[in-house]
């Protein structure tokens, strides 16, 4: 991640924002990184760290699911708790923005491990929202749809590091075909970037923020269908 820090710092200098923007590395699994940023003074915290391990949930090695939860859920929660305590002690009416996913409210073939972590984040966010209401600290979620950042394609690739036609009943060829269908229509990421800047930069807003509208409509249709689906 250090090369990314260097690249971003260079970009900030090109924009002439080096006196207003601080760029540093924060690995949510690294206690030293967390300690290094704990004294920063801020009132908006965006929890966005995530990895993905994918493949059919009925067969994926459980340690890969556990690893995904460690980063996406437990490490994020631990850091969020630290931020919240700092704000409560200082009397800061801050804002926690949890970047979830459309996968936090539905599932897709092969993406079950990742979706499970995002479902967990939805529960965490909703619980924190109610618990923190008396403190003045607010909570929001941002739920992006499928954007062509490369993240979705690369986490799909992870299935083929463990999937073995000699051992698994899911065939690699079939899994690849299913992923190809799911990943065929992804949105341009600048649209989501602009929306996140709008949401995070606004003084007011809604608790849940699904984008684009097509993703919100799909989620509502899937959730409604669940009430009448037969076994």
Number of domains: 2
Mean pLDDT: 96
Q: Give the C-alpha Rg.
A: 19 Å
Assign the CATH topology of the largest domain.
Answer: Rossmann fold
User: How do the strands line up in the largest sheet?
Assistant: 1-2-3-4
Please describe what this structure looks like.
The protein is of the alpha/beta class. Helix content is 50%, strand content 9%. Helix 3 packs parallel to helix 4 (112-132). The longest helix has 29 residues, at 62-90.
Q: Quick gist of this model?
A:
This protein is of the alpha/beta class. It contains eight helices and four strands.
What's the layout of helices and strands?
Blueprint: H1 2-14, H2 31-37, E1 44-47, H3 62-90, E2 95-99, H4 112-132, E3 138-144, H5 151-157, H6 172-183, H7 189-201, E4 208-211, H8 213-226
Parallel strand pairs: 1-2, 2-3, 3-4
Which characteristics define this entry?
231 residues, alpha/beta, Rossmann fold, 2 domains, 4 strands, globular
């Amino acid at each position: 991640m250090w090369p990314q820090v260097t690249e971003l710092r260079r970009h900030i200098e090109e924009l002439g924002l080096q006196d207003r923007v601080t760029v540093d590395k924060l690995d949510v699994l690294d206690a030293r990184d967390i300690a290094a940023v704990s004294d920063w003074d801020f009132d908006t915290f965006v929890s966005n760290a995530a990895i993905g391990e994918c493949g059919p949930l009925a067969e994926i090695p459980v340690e890969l699911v556990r690893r995904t939860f460690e980063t996406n859920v437990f490490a994020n929660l631990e850091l969020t708790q630290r931020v919240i305590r700092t704000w409560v002690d200082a009397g800061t009416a801050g804002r926690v923005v949890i970047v979830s996913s459309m996968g936090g409210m539905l599932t897709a073939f092969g993406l079950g491990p990742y979706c499970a972590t995002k479902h967990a984040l939805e529960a965490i966010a909703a619980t924190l929202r109610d618990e923190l209401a008396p403190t003045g600290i607010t909570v929001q979620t941002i739920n992006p749809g499928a954007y062509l950042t490369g993240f979705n394609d690369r986490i799909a690739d992870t299935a083929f590091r463990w999937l073995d036609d000699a051992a698994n009943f899911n065939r690699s060829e079939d899994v690849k075909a299913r992923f190809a269908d799911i990943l065929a229509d992804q949105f341009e990421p600048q649209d989501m970037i602009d929306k996140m800047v709008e949401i995070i930069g606004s003084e007011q807003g809604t608790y849940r923020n699904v984008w684009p509208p097509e993703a919100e409509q799909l989620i509502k249709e899937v959730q409604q269908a669940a009430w009448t689906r037969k076994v």
